[in-house]
């Protein structure tokens, strides 16, 4: 136990963070789909580390909402319930409305150029998983362009779950996904560049709604 008034030296957690990054990337890349088990023994062998950092990494991913623990199965990749989908969509909507309003009001040319660059990369995406990465990068750029630190932090808190939301969306139905997503984002970026707040808000709402409709079967 530490002495009163004294700060306990922090433990170095670099290895656990690196393991978390590797496992997260594997999930986002499709190696571990929703519902897949994440076995400590297998992960420690594959990554060449002891089970301790793996266990810490899985706890970190659980805090992100990307992993869940079940007493009879251990750690598994989160499968989004209907409630999860609805809550993520409503929270994302609230955050995104503020982000769009701020970008329209005060984003710099450099900020908008970063958004445009992501849209250009979308046109070169080779598969659905690469497109999902670009989609998340696009929204990262929009939040960064808002210039609102706490809003960016709020987005980061749900970013992994939104990524999982989009992976679930392509798992349900990816027909036409590669063809339609770049154009959708070109329209979003164009509305931001035109500083047309009403149009941008409408287009972003439509964009979110299309993904939600796929997941809810509408």
UniProtKB/TrEMBL annotation:
Keyword rRNA-binding carried by entry: no
Ranges where the HTH gntR-type domain occurs: 13-80
Transmembrane segments annotated in the record for this chain: none
Pfam families in alphabetical order: FCD (PF07729), GntR (PF00392)
Domain of life from the UniProt record: Bacteria
Keywords attached to this entry: DNA-binding, Transcription, Transcription regulation
Molecular function as annotated in GO: DNA binding; DNA-binding transcription factor activity
CDD domains hit by this protein: WHTH_GntR (cd07377)
InterPro entries: GntR_C, TF_FadR/GntR_C, Tscrpt_reg_HTH_GntR, WH-like_DNA-bd_sf, WH_DNA-bd_sf
Protein name (Swiss-Prot/TrEMBL): GntR family transcriptional regulator
Taxonomic classification: Bacteria, Bacillati, Actinomycetota, Actinomycetes, Pseudonocardiales
């Amino acid at each position: 136990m530490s002495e009163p008034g004294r700060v306990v030296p922090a433990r170095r957690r670099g290895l656990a963070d690196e393991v978390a990054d590797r496992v997260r990337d594997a999930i986002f890349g499709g190696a571990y789909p929703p519902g897949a088990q994440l076995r400590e023994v297998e992960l420690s062998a594959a990554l060449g580390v002891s089970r301790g950092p793996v266990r810490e990494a899985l706890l970190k991913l659980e805090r992100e909402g990307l992993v869940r623990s079940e007493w009879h199965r251990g750690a598994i990749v989160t499968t989004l319930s209907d409630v999860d989908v609805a809550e993520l969509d409503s929270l994302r909507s609230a955050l995104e409305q503020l982000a769009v309003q701020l970008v329209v009001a005060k984003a710099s040319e450099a900020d908008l150029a970063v958004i445009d660059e992501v849209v250009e990369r979308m046109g070169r995406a080779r598969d659905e998983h690469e497109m999902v990465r670009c989609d998340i990068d696009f929204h990262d750029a929009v939040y960064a362009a808002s210039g609102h630190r706490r809003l960016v932090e709020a987005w980061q808190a749900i970013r992994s779950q939104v990524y999982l939301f989009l992976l679930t969306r392509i798992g349900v139905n990816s027909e036409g996904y590669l063809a339609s997503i770049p154009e959708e984002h070109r329209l979003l970026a164009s509305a931001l560049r035109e500083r047309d707040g009403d149009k941008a808000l409408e287009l972003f709402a439509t964009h979110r709604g299309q993904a939600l409709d796929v997941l809810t079967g509408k």
